[in-house]
Amino acid sequence: METMVCPMGGGATRLYSTLSGGGRSLPPPPPHLARQHHPEREPQPSFCKKLLKECEEALRGRPPRFHRHFIHCHDGHWGPSSLIRVMQWNILAQALGEGADCFVRCPLEALSWPERKYLILEEILTYRPHILCLQEVDHYYDTFQPILRNLGYGGNFFPKPWSPCLDVEGNNGPDGCALFFDQSRFEFLESVSLRLSAMLMPTNQIAVVTKLRCRATAKCVFVAVTHLKARSGWERLRSAQGSDLLCHLQNLIHRRLPGTTPPDPDPDPDPSLIVCGDFNAMPSEEVYQRFASSPLRLDSAYKKLSKDGSTEPRYTTWKIRPSGECCSTLDYIWYTQDSLHVHTVLDMPTEEQIGPDRLPSLNYPSDHLSLVCDFGFKEKLCTPD
């Protein structure tokens, strides 16, 4: 594997290089993509300057953030194709961060929304994903939807039926899952919001599934974002929720789900699938094994960071609560291995970088780390008749 450095500076410097196009976070588009401009979907310079100024002022004095690198993955042979950058992130609901989650070693000022929101936006803008999957979003309508819309993203949001945020005084409404996509890269086809069931009973956990068509390749991709039940002791429920989601995904791909639109007149015969989520489950849990053994032939992108390509990272979340320290792998980006290849994966910060007080902190806004990877469509090999 080859390491690709993603340079990190101060908050304002890093944001400016990303927004102005001078950063190295994303490679320049291939020539055939550079010709396909959609000016109405591109961020307005005046908005970018305003956002830059706000970030610069809000984050002044914050300690430097993690240096993370993109790891180039060599996982087989494929034809040339445009890359799709995907980000998966549980951003930590503001109401939970200030209330029920009780991060005992986190400074109170680190959880202040007027500053923390800019750390979240900075993380997104540093990597500028084409597809962005978020959990624990409780500021969708007043923050993320309007800001990301002005940066060229379309989005869908689905709140939890009984969000724990509503039990916190001064909350901003229920938290839920949000799925954003770069409208210059994808054509929106349809979206379905799902309330997941277990043993035929509806639960409080949800998913959003969106079908997109890549403007460069005309290939279709289904993208799902989900957040399964938390806490130890709920393993069977998580497994049932995962099974329900897999069933929905199979039905959606094969057009068997009630309420979906009629098939496209010129459909992609082999659509790809990407599933992002906070599964609240370690790789040893049954729900992980269900996804790994699904007929959809899914694989986990972050296994590419391991030497043998078969082991998940040691952690995707690291926090200290009154009950003790929790360092575990709960977040995943699944993909259809028959139609997609993993090109690059953003590595994890080290224990030293995270620091003794763990997450969240003054230089990182969530107790979960963002996962970012670049996918390419595999080219089908022509076989003689």
Care to describe what's here?
It is built from nine helices and 16 strands. The protein is of the alpha+beta class and 385 residues long. It has a single domain (2-28, 41-260, 267-377), classed as Endonuclease/exonuclease/phosphatase (Deoxyribonuclease I, Chain A, 4-Layer Sandwich), CATH 3.60.10. The strands form three sheets. It has an eight-stranded mixed sheet, with helices on one face. The protein has a six-stranded mixed sheet with strand order 7-8-9-10-14-11, covered by helices on one side. α1 (11-19) packs across α5 (113-127). The two termini are 37 Å apart.
| Strand residue percentage | 25-35%
Could you say which overall geometry the principal axes of the C-alpha atoms support?
globular
Classify the oligomer: single chain
Q: What top-tier CATH class fits best? A: Alpha Beta
Instruction: Give Rg in angstroms.
Output: 20 Å
Distance between the termini: 37 Å
Count of spatially separate domains: 1
CATH architecture: 4-Layer Sandwich
